[in-house]
Design goal:
Layout: E1 19-20, H1 21-28, H2 32-41, E2 48-50, E3 54-57, H3 59-74, H4 79-117
Antiparallel strand pairs: 1-3, 2-3
Length: 118
Protein backbone atom coordinates (compact mmCIF):
# COMPACT_ATOMS: atom_id res chain seq x y z
CA UNK A 1 0.00 0.00 0.00
CA UNK A 2 1.43 3.34 1.06
CA UNK A 3 4.87 3.70 2.47
CA UNK A 4 4.99 5.59 5.79
CA UNK A 5 7.07 8.34 4.15
CA UNK A 6 4.16 9.31 1.91
CA UNK A 7 1.86 9.71 4.90
CA UNK A 8 4.10 12.04 6.89
CA UNK A 9 1.95 15.13 6.37
CA UNK A 10 -1.38 13.32 6.81
CA UNK A 11 -3.01 12.81 10.23
CA UNK A 12 -3.26 9.36 11.80
CA UNK A 13 -6.42 7.42 11.03
CA UNK A 14 -8.54 7.10 14.19
CA UNK A 15 -9.76 3.68 15.30
CA UNK A 16 -13.33 4.19 14.11
CA UNK A 17 -15.35 1.84 11.94
CA UNK A 18 -16.96 4.45 9.67
CA UNK A 19 -15.93 7.92 8.54
CA UNK A 20 -18.01 10.66 6.91
CA UNK A 21 -16.87 12.27 3.67
CA UNK A 22 -15.82 15.36 5.63
CA UNK A 23 -13.64 13.33 7.98
CA UNK A 24 -12.05 11.45 5.07
CA UNK A 25 -11.44 14.74 3.32
CA UNK A 26 -9.43 15.96 6.32
CA UNK A 27 -7.65 12.62 6.85
CA UNK A 28 -6.53 12.44 3.22
CA UNK A 29 -6.00 16.08 2.33
CA UNK A 30 -8.51 15.91 -0.55
CA UNK A 31 -11.70 17.93 -1.02
CA UNK A 32 -15.07 16.10 -0.85
CA UNK A 33 -15.92 16.75 -4.51
CA UNK A 34 -12.64 15.08 -5.49
CA UNK A 35 -13.55 12.03 -3.39
CA UNK A 36 -16.93 11.79 -5.14
CA UNK A 37 -15.18 12.04 -8.52
CA UNK A 38 -12.66 9.33 -7.58
CA UNK A 39 -15.56 7.02 -6.66
CA UNK A 40 -16.63 7.18 -10.31
CA UNK A 41 -13.10 6.59 -11.63
CA UNK A 42 -11.82 3.87 -9.27
CA UNK A 43 -13.92 0.73 -8.82
CA UNK A 44 -11.91 -0.11 -5.68
CA UNK A 45 -13.50 2.83 -3.93
CA UNK A 46 -17.05 2.01 -2.85
CA UNK A 47 -18.18 3.65 0.40
CA UNK A 48 -21.32 2.43 2.12
CA UNK A 49 -24.28 4.66 1.32
CA UNK A 50 -27.03 5.09 3.89
CA UNK A 51 -29.88 7.48 4.66
CA UNK A 52 -30.18 10.20 2.05
CA UNK A 53 -27.24 8.82 0.04
CA UNK A 54 -24.76 9.75 2.80
CA UNK A 55 -21.39 8.15 2.30
CA UNK A 56 -19.65 6.25 5.07
CA UNK A 57 -16.08 5.20 4.39
CA UNK A 58 -14.32 2.36 6.17
CA UNK A 59 -10.64 2.27 7.15
CA UNK A 60 -9.78 0.29 3.99
CA UNK A 61 -11.41 3.01 1.86
CA UNK A 62 -9.31 5.67 3.59
CA UNK A 63 -6.14 3.67 2.86
CA UNK A 64 -7.12 3.30 -0.81
CA UNK A 65 -7.83 7.04 -1.05
CA UNK A 66 -4.42 7.79 0.44
CA UNK A 67 -2.83 5.45 -2.08
CA UNK A 68 -4.71 7.10 -4.97
CA UNK A 69 -3.69 10.52 -3.66
CA UNK A 70 -0.06 9.43 -3.51
CA UNK A 71 -0.14 8.00 -7.04
CA UNK A 72 -1.76 11.12 -8.52
CA UNK A 73 -0.21 13.96 -6.54
CA UNK A 74 3.21 12.65 -5.49
CA UNK A 75 4.15 10.12 -8.17
CA UNK A 76 2.57 11.98 -11.09
CA UNK A 77 0.31 9.20 -12.42
CA UNK A 78 -2.70 10.02 -14.56
CA UNK A 79 -6.13 8.76 -13.51
CA UNK A 80 -5.84 5.90 -16.02
CA UNK A 81 -2.31 5.06 -14.91
CA UNK A 82 -3.29 5.04 -11.25
CA UNK A 83 -6.27 2.81 -12.07
CA UNK A 84 -3.95 0.33 -13.85
CA UNK A 85 -1.43 0.42 -11.00
CA UNK A 86 -4.14 -0.34 -8.43
CA UNK A 87 -5.51 -3.16 -10.61
CA UNK A 88 -2.01 -4.64 -10.96
CA UNK A 89 -1.42 -4.46 -7.20
CA UNK A 90 -4.75 -6.17 -6.56
CA UNK A 91 -3.98 -8.92 -9.10
CA UNK A 92 -0.64 -9.63 -7.40
CA UNK A 93 -2.35 -9.71 -4.00
CA UNK A 94 -5.05 -12.08 -5.30
CA UNK A 95 -2.40 -14.32 -6.87
CA UNK A 96 -0.36 -14.61 -3.67
CA UNK A 97 -3.53 -15.25 -1.67
CA UNK A 98 -4.52 -18.02 -4.10
CA UNK A 99 -1.08 -19.59 -3.80
CA UNK A 100 -1.37 -19.60 -0.01
CA UNK A 101 -4.78 -21.29 -0.18
CA UNK A 102 -3.49 -23.91 -2.64
CA UNK A 103 -0.51 -24.62 -0.39
CA UNK A 104 -2.77 -24.98 2.66
CA UNK A 105 -5.19 -27.33 0.85
CA UNK A 106 -2.31 -29.42 -0.46
CA UNK A 107 -0.83 -29.76 3.02
CA UNK A 108 -4.20 -30.82 4.42
CA UNK A 109 -4.67 -33.38 1.62
CA UNK A 110 -1.20 -34.81 2.27
CA UNK A 111 -2.09 -35.16 5.97
CA UNK A 112 -5.33 -36.95 5.08
CA UNK A 113 -3.41 -39.26 2.73
CA UNK A 114 -0.98 -40.14 5.55
CA UNK A 115 -3.89 -41.00 7.83
CA UNK A 116 -5.52 -43.17 5.14
CA UNK A 117 -2.28 -45.09 4.45
CA UNK A 118 -2.00 -46.22 8.09
Amino acid sequence: MLEPGNNAELPLIPGKRYFTIGEVSELCGVKPHVLRYWEQEFSHLQPVKRRGNRRYYQRQDVLIIRQIRSLLYEEGFTIGGARQKLAGDEARHDSSQSQQIIHQVRTELEDILKVLRR
